[in-house]
């Protein structure tokens, strides 16, 4: 199974540049808030394994499809 690269609690989404995890309880290991915040993230499973917001990736994917291109990682371009 492919695993995401580890990320720091203050890392940002490479698409929107907002924090991957909101400040507060979501940054505490094992908290309910962290588990909920982690469900809102995705990562590149075909290349770089970097993490991004799922909603940001959806916007990227929708754009790629709208211009007739394959969905790819916005960082490494793996498809």
- Give the integer mean of the pLDDT values: 97
Number of strands: 2
Count of individual helical segments: 2
**Order of adjacent strands in the largest pleated sheet:** 1-2
- Class by SSE composition: alpha+beta
Rounded to the nearest angstrom, the distance between the terminal CA atoms is 17 Å
Q: What would you call the shape?
A: elongated
Strand content: 5-15%
Written overview of the protein:
The protein has a two-stranded antiparallel ribbon. The protein has 2 helices and 2 strands. Helices cover 25% and strands 8% of the residues. The chain is elongated, with a radius of gyration of 13 Å. The model has no long low-confidence stretch (mean pLDDT 97). By secondary structure, the protein is an alpha+beta fold.
Please specify the SSE layout and strand pairing.
Layout: H1 32-38, E1 41-43, E2 51-53, H2 54-66
Antiparallel strand pairs: 1-2
Quick synopsis:
The protein is α+β, with helices and mostly antiparallel strands.
Features of this protein?
alpha+beta; 25% helix; 79 residues; 2 helices
């Amino acid at each position: 199974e492919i695993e995401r690269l580890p990320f720091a609690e203050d890392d940002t989404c490479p698409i929107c540049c907002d924090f991957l995890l909101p400040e507060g309880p979501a940054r505490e290991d094992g908290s309910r808030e962290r588990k909920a915040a982690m469900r809102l993230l995705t990562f590149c499973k075909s290349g770089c394994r970097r993490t991004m917001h799922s909603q940001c990736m959806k916007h990227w994917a929708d754009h790629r499809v709208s211009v007739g291109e394959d969905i790819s990682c916005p960082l490494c371009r793996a498809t």
